[in-house]
Amino acid sequence: MLKLKDVSKFYYNKGIITAGFTKVSVDFKLGEFVVITGESGSGKSTLLNVLSGTDSYEEGEMYINGVETSHYTEAEFEDYRKKYIGNIFQNFNLVNSYSVYQNVELVLLINGYTKKDIKEKINNILKEVDLYRFRRTKVSKLSGGQKQRVAIARALAKETPIIIADEPTGNLDSRSAKSVLEILHKISKDKLVIIVTHNYDQVEEYATRKIKMHDGRIIEDKVLVKTKQDIVPEASKYANITFLSKLRIGLRNTFNIIPKFLLTFLVYFFMVAALLSEYSSFKKADYESGKMGYNGYFQNTDDRRIVLQKNDKSYFTDEDYEKIKSLSNIDYIVKDDLLLDNAISFVNEETNLYLYGTAKDINRFTGSVDVGRTPQNENEIIIAGFKEDYYISQMADQILESNLQLQNMMRGEYVGSYRIVGIKYEDINQYAFYCSDAVLQVVKDMADDYYSSIEFTLSGKKYKSEKWNTYMQIVANVNIPKGEAYVSADITYLCSNYSCRNKVISMTNSNIYYEQSNEVKITKSYNKNNFNSLTGLKKYDEHNGKIFVNPDDYEALFNKNYFQSSVFVKDVKEIYNTEKKLQDLNIKTLLIKDTLANWDEGVSQVLRIMQVVVTIVLIIVMFFISYFIIKIILKSRNIYFTTIRILGASKKVSKQLLDIELLTVSNLAYIIVIGFLLLVHYNIVNLSYIKDLMTYISIRDYILIYIILILMTELISSKFAKSIFKKSAMKTFNEEV
Ligand code: ADP
Ligand code: MG
User: Residue of 121, 332, 377, 612 with fewest CB within 10 Å of its CB?
Assistant: First the structure.
């Protein structure tokens, strides 16, 4: 059934041609027990490889059941191997980490049998080779003879008509060798058994035919016992491996070598952790830089906000507000837009408490406070902030019910004393102070002051009222009667004849929207002695030089109309439609949302690109480190994958088994990392640094990182699969052994 006619096998190695064997003609029949002998290097193994279809031949003809095979493709030889050949090797080629049963089972699962169909069959075979009681023992714990019997059991399980054994007793003591040979002899009745041995004496009693090789040629071919002729062999049946079997083997491989599993797991664990921390740090830096550049312009960065000015630069009338309000997507209008962007600070010098944020209208406050109480009078305030914020979460006792000074940051003065009575948790990156109308008015006055520049004329000369210089600074003071001004005795030289009494000060406020003037008459001059009684203020030295006027006169410099307002939309997705409708009302618009994205394109874009590049480089470096570690771990599995290849697994199946193995580990690592993060999130594990980073990543980011992980796993497995299939199976065996 297996016939060679003048077949030669050559090896080409760096230009040198060596002959494996030359012009071999031989014909094997079912029922034979063929023993091939010959000194080392005479071509025995090469002959067996050609007969098994694992190696090609260069010359001559090989017939399988009378069919010539020189035109056979790789796939056809594979089919031949699966149907006809069972191999037994000198070094067993078993999966050491599997049990005896699992080793035999493996070949059947790979060839499409299902687990429950083969249990009885495997047990019977194990009884036949006298290993039934060791069926649950790991192969690594067996003796050489026992191992070889497992290999025989594995070859038998496939029920192939041909068993090819290359020096099966080479590594065995004589007693084990004898039992192995006896089993081989026992099964040779209806099969063709071809074995190679150094020690002919050992096999003599079983052999039906002896072949001796020398220098690549058959020099002796002697039939010792006549066997029946012309039995048609029954090919072994096989199918594609089932999905369930793949899953079973893949999972078995994942966990059966614990150190390997732990090592791979650790690599993946650190990979996920590093990816997540790198990514969240990137997002944090991105967020911080965006916030930083942005604060200079707008404090309120709500993406639902649109800033409005009229095209003709005039102020908004009630009619304008009515029209704006009637648009569909408008949630509410903040007429005095300055309030939104004007940062204020509350200070308690005794406790060193300093709170910085924006003022909000208490009428916009909804719901109830989370800590403390609701305000009872107009000097009481609610503070809103991020729940995890240090002051909000840890210092609530200090903040609540303590007297705080509202500071005019420009002038460095305190302009009123207020009390924070309630805390509200809000997801905002800056504190918000919900204030009464009275407090808002104070804030508004500060903002007006800040955005305006006041000039005045005295005795025909123009002066500028500087905000940070007390000298000739115009300020409001309730002690001054309307229409009057008190000036320092030190500045009387500015007035003609050194007398300022009854001189008129003409004040003008100009800003980007309007110009407004008012006049007051100087009625008194103050000095160190009368300063306190005239102004009600204490520190003369700090104030000397100021020009004090009545608050009404001061405020008359400021137009009470609104030149810039903001609207907040209900649905941010519709914001561009709303913007268009506003523009149709002759209004100039500015979307906060868009300014956020490109506030300062030059610098921020470069910084951002650098951050992205650094992050990507780190991810790539991490990938290669992981890849090389996993490759080293997998290298120990070369033999395994070569073995399953010999047992009939295709490249695709081998890769799928590896996929299952790596995906199981990587998913497990991912789940454990996420589980750990959940523990941190729910404060079961207290790690504030990690918790802080976590606030910057969303579900979408977790999914993205998961996808990166899976892609990396896939890349690793396909690269590894490629590398193990580059070499032929036999070559890998020869090199590894
Ligand atoms: P045996 O099994 O009888 O000891 P082999 O079949 O292994 O002998 O080797 C036969 C001849 O082929 C030897 O000369 C050996 O050097 C050569 N040979 C075997 N395998 C290779 C190979 N992969 N590349 C080159 N030469 C080889
Ligand atoms: Mg050999």
Answer: 377
Res. 596 pLDDT band, cuts 50 70 90: low
End-to-end CA distance of the chain: 32
Overall pTM surpassing 0.90 (yes/no): no
Kindly give the pairing relationship between strand 343-348 and strand 403-408. antiparallel
The CATH number, out of the four listed (3.40.50.2000, 3.40.50.300, 3.90.180.10, 3.40.190.170), of the domain defined by the range 2-239: 3.40.50.300
Domain segments of the chain: what residues?
2-239, 249-287+602-736, 305-335+562-596, 338-434, 453-555
Q: What is the largest CA-CA distance in the chain?
A: 149
The DSSP element (H or E) to which 417 belongs, if any, is strand 413-425
Q: Is the CB of 20 under 6 A from ligand 1?
A: yes
Other residues' Cβ atoms within 10 Å of the Cβ of residue 100? 28
CA–CA separation, 509 and 196 (whole Å)? 110
The rounded distance, in Å, linking the Cα atoms of 349 and 414 is 11
The finding on whether 37 has its CB within 6 A of some atom of ligand 1 is no
pLDDT in tens, 168-195: 998 889 899 999 999 999 888 889 999 9
What is the mean pLDDT of the segment spanning 244-265?
93
Question: What's the CA-to-centroid distance between 504 and ligand 2, angstroms?
Answer: 120
Alpha helices, H only, 256-311? 258-295
576 CA → ligand 1 middle, Å: 78
Query: 3-class SS at 505?
Result: strand
The closest ligand to the CA of 49 turns out to be 1
Q: Helix (H, G, I), strand (E, B), or coil: what is residue 587? A: strand
Write down the architecture of domain 305-335+562-596 according to CATH. 2-Layer Sandwich (3.30)
Amino acid occupying residue 442: V
SS3 content of the chain, % helix, strand, coil (to 5): 45, 25, 30
Tell which wins on pLDDT, 235 or 568. 568
List the alpha helices (DSSP H) in 92-172. Answer: 100-110, 119-128, 144-157
Q: Is residue 628 within 6 Å of ligand 1 at its C-beta?
A: no
Judged on CB neighbours under 10 Å (0-12, 13-18, 19+), 498 is exposed
Q: Mind listing the pLDDT tens digit for each residue in 143-155?
A: 999 999 999 999 9
Assess whether pLDDT exceeds 50 at residue 435. yes
- Give the number of whichever ligand sits closest to the CA of residue 16: 1
What DSSP element (H or E) covers 212?
Answer: strand 209-214
pLDDT tier at 734 (50, 70, 90 boundaries)? low
Cα dihedral 537, 542, 545, 549 sign: negative
Residue 167, pLDDT > 70, answer yes
Mean pLDDT calculated for residue range 447-473 = 86
Between the alpha carbon of residue 688 and those of residues 285, 306, 672, the distances in Å are 17, 36, 19
Q: pLDDT over 90 for what percent of the chain?
A: 49
CA distance 490 to 482: 23
Predicted pLDDT of residue 494: 86
